[in-house]
Design goal:
Layout (H helix, E strand, L loop, with lengths): L2 E6 L6 H12 L4 E7 L13 H10 L4 E5 L1 H4 L3 H13 L6 E6 L4 H11 L2 H12 L4 H12 L3 H4 L3 H16 L4 E6 L18 H11 L10 H12 L6 H13 L3 H5 L8 H9 L5 H8 L6 H13 L12 E7 H5 L8 E2 L2 H4 L4 H19 L9 H4 L3 E3 L8
Helix pairs in contact: 2-11, 4-9, 5-9, 6-7, 12-16, 14-15
């Protein structure tokens, strides 16, 4: 491994993420490129902090290049999220490895499970089990386990699941990236207490910030990141969860079932459940609870509601048509030379590259504008076009 990539959200960047960057260096990575979700996240919400803050924190901790995963690409299932990230990193010439955390850091086992999930037999078995009323996640694990002995156990862990999706994307896209799983340490995904090593999950830190303020994160984030977070908090750039809830609900209440049915993620009459729930739900959590069924996971409902609110439909590109540079040093900028996708720090320049780029940039900006409105001190529209990249270089110019 010489040139490594990481797909992530850094919501927020914490000590466990810094450890992963150090571990990649120990395994031989000379240059590290990160593909990071920008304003919106895979769980169907807005990020705690703006992308510029999180990207700069990653650069401080050892990343060389941070490119943004456009908002429509981030608000997808784990499969879509992984495919979009792999496509973006695969566009960087010379990048040879994809580093990610896993409870089972066994490349062969993860790749074999991915091959099972790519097989026609798997799809048929999942449909059969789901048709019998089994929830999708359970049907997926059962189907995989019936086709390969270790697959069920592999898929029983959240980071393994995402790792398998990365492997699937590599196989389906014919990417030259080699999976490099590293042992997941500290707190588990979503764990609401710090881990034994002092690491804490991002969800725990978001809750801690909400309850006690930014300073409470001090034991769990790098000092440089904490300094950036304190500055962001002083400027009111952290997410106001209640404002986000009201903003999304107000949009949904103005939509009829036909518009809800046109959103990405609508299926099997789900738009009618959303239309009924939104009539009386006082907040988003109540909305999700009213929509919940055995068939649909909570995360899927969150993504569907957000996609509906933003008008994200199935016609949007599913993978990035460009590379939006958020932060870089000299070594990171060198990775962009000869990239298979247009690369720039300017979203305005990128949206002119193709029709797909225009569609993606406009949809991305809509998500950024929603997130900006929901900061503790609301920001203006157009921030995705005006935000400044964090560049540590003596050169000039934004074209690669």
């Amino acid at each position: 491994m010489r040139l490594a990539g990481i797909i992530t959200e850094y919501d927020p960047f914490h000590a466990g993420h810094a450890w992963q960057l150090r571990r990649a260096r120990e395994l031989g990575a000379q240059v590290i490129a990160v593909c990071m979700s920008e304003d919106l996240t895979q769980r169907g919400s807005a990020a705690l902090l703006p992308p510029a803050v999180r990207a700069a924190a990653a650069l401080d901790a050892g990343a060389d290049l941070v490119i943004g995963l456009p908002n429509p690409c981030a608000v997808q299932s784990a499969e879509g999220f992984a495919a979009a990230g792999v496509a973006a990193l695969s566009a960087l010439p010379g990048l040879d490895s994809l580093v990610f955390g896993a409870e089972t850091p066994d490349t062969d086992a993860l790749m074999e499970t991915a091959r099972v999930l790519c097989s026609p037999e798997f799809d048929r078995t999942v449909k059969q089990l789901a048709g019998q009323g089994m929830a999708f996640a359970a049907a997926r694990a059962a189907a995989a386990g019936s086709l390969h002995p270790c697959a069920r156990e592999i898929l029983a862990h959240p980071n393994n699941n995402l790792g398998v999706e990365y492997c699937k994307a590599i196989l389906r896209q014919g990417s030259s990236l080699v999976p490099v799983p590293v042992q997941r340490t500290g707190a588990q995904h979503g764990q609401q207490t710090p881990g034994e090593e002092g690491f804490a999950s991002a969800s725990y830190l978001r809750g801690l910030w909400r309850r006690q303020g930014v300073q409470a994160l001090a034991p769990y984030v790098p000092a440089a990141a904490l300094e950036r977070y304190q500055k962001a908090a002083a400027q009111g750039q952290d997410l106001d969860g209640r404002a986000f809830s009201v903003a999304v609900l107000s949009r949904l209440r103005a939509m009829d079932p036909a518009r809800l049915a046109a959103a990405r993620g609508a299926a099997e009459g789900l738009e009618h459940r959303l239309a009924a729930a939104v009539r009386c739900a006082p907040d988003l959590e109540s909305l999700y609870a009213a929509m919940k069924t055995k068939r649909y996971a909570h995360a899927r409902l969150r993504r569907y509601a957000l996609c509906a609110a933003l008008g994200y439909g199935p016609d949007l590109p599913q993978t990035p048509p460009y590379l939006h540079v958020l932060a870089a040093n000299r070594a990171g900028l060198s990775l962009l030379k000869g990239a298979a996708l247009p690369a720039d720090t300017s979203l305005a320049a990128l949206e002119k590259k193709s029709e797909a780029a225009r569609q993606m940039a406009r949809a991305h900006a809509a998500g950024a504008d929603l997130a900006a409105l929901c900061r503790r001190i609301p920001g203006p529209m157009g921030s995705s076009y005006t935000q400044k990249p964090c560049l540590i270089t003596g050169g000039s110019g934004n074209n690669f």
